[in-house]
């Protein structure tokens, strides 16, 4: 399987994350991608290629223009205020407040953020842009007939909604790739999100659409980030009704329980008969992930990779989360090798 990878991921190198009331070194850090690409090379998974540049249009096909303009200038605008730390919101348009978009950067941060653990700093936009190009290049390969490709995106994307960033995500790489496949002639795309966290951004983007099926297995939002989306009763709206399917799972879910939910998800995907599958691949379901509560073991990732391959669909894997950094390369590549066996 070909891997698409850009060294520009390193430009996303924020120094702080708000965690437990303290500013800590971010869980989503550059070494994540280094461990994964090292493992890809160590097992000879296949060629590693640089992304092509598809420009801004495919990003603007998914995201609100005002939101992207905000991301482009947020760090400069923040610095212009003379603040010493990295950019983070401190105020939100909460219940019954105005939704006018403020002028001041502190107001705009609150308007466009869905969470404040994720800071914006130097290079954030450049890395997020490169990650989207990685996903687009992977989609291009699958569109051209590759049975599978791995878009090693960093920063991740599945929490980024039409006009919101957060959860370490800025541009929704999987959604940008899905739209690209549709634009290239696919009629239906399925997105299977196996990251520990609910893919609220992807769900938001395709909520009212029937040309993208969104299926997610994740920690129950009653107990896990992003807390405010991902319940089983969210099934899509309007034309998109029944094209969103959520499997929230409780703390300490083991592989047997997780795999049973995956089996149900795969039946829905098969029935939908998509032209291609996008897997939002987060390996934060691992038993020792520092911020998650599922109990998958390394060999389980190989097993479920093979389960996904059973669909027989052209498949683009798009990297999302995973924070047990020492094991992230093994677990990620186990899925890809399990798929190829
Ligand atoms: C892409 C992705 O995986 N994003 C995840 C963002 C999660 N950020 C908030 C984490 C809050 C974790 N609280 C964990 C408590 C652990 N005891
Ligand atoms: Zn996650």
Give the end-to-end Cα distance, rounded to a whole number of Å. 11 Å
CATH H-tier superfamily? Histone deacetylase domain
What structural category characterises the helix and strand content? alpha/beta
Helix content: 25-40%
CATH architecture: 3-Layer(aba) Sandwich
Strand order of the largest sheet: 4-1-5-10-9-6-7-8
Overall 3D geometry? globular
The percentage of residues in β strands lies in 5-15%
Q: Spell out which ligands are present.
A: N-[3-({4-[(3-aminopropyl)amino]butyl}amino)propyl]acetamide, zinc ion
Quick one: biggest sheet? 8 strands, parallel
Summed up, the helix count is 10
CATH class: Alpha Beta
Strand segment count: 10
* Rg calc: 18 Å
Quote the average pLDDT.
98
Uncertain spans, ≥5 residues at pLDDT below 50? none
- Element-by-element helix/strand order: EEEHEHHHHEHEHEEHEHEH
Organism: Ascidiaceihabitans donghaensis
InterPro entries: HDACs, His_deacetylse_dom, His_deacetylse_dom_sf, Ureohydrolase_dom_sf
Cofactor: Zn(2+)
Domain Histone deacetylase: 28-333
């Amino acid at each position: 399987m070909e891997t698409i990878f850009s060294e520009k991921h390193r430009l996303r190198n924020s120094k702080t994350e708000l965690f437990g009331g303290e500013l800590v070194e971010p869980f989503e850090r550059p070494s994540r991608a280094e461990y994964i690409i090292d493992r890809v090379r160590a097992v000879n998974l296949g060629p590693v290629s640089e992304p092509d540049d598809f420009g801004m249009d495919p990003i603007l096909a998914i995201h609100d223009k005002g939101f992207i303009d905000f991301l482009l200038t947020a760090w400069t605008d923040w610095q212009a205020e003379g603040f010493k730390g990295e950019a983070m919101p401190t105020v939100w348009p909460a219940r019954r407040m105005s939704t006018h978009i403020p002028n001041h950067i502190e107001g705009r941060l609150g308007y466009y953020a869905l969470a404040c653990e994720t800071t914006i700093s130097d290079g954030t936009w450049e890395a997020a842009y490169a990650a989207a190009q990685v996903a687009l290049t992977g989609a291009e390969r699958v569109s051209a007939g590759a049975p599978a490709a791995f878009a090693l995106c960093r920063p991740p994307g599945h929490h980024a909604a039409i006009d919101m960033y957060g959860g370490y995500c800025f541009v929704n790489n999987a959604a940008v790739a899905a739209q690209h496949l549709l634009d290239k002639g696919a009629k239906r795309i399925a997105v299977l999100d196996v990251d520990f966290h609910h893919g609220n951004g992807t769900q938001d983007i395709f909520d009212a659409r029937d040309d993208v099926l969104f299926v997610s297995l994740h920690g129950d939002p009653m107990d896990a980030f992003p807390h405010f989306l991902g319940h089983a009763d969210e099934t899509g709206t309007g034309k998109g009704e029944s094209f969103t399917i959520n499997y929230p799972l409780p703390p300490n879910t083991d592989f047997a329980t997780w795999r049973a939910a995956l089996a149900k998800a795969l039946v829905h995907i098969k029935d939908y008969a998509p032209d291609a599958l996008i897997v939002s691949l987060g390996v934060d379901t691992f038993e020792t992930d520092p911020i998650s509560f599922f109990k998958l073991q390394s060999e389980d990732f190989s097993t479920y990779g093979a389960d996904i391959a059973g669909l027989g669909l052209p498949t683009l894997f798009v990297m999302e989360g995973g924070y047990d950094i020492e094991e992230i390369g093994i677990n990620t590549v186990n899925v890809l090798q399990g798929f190829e066996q």
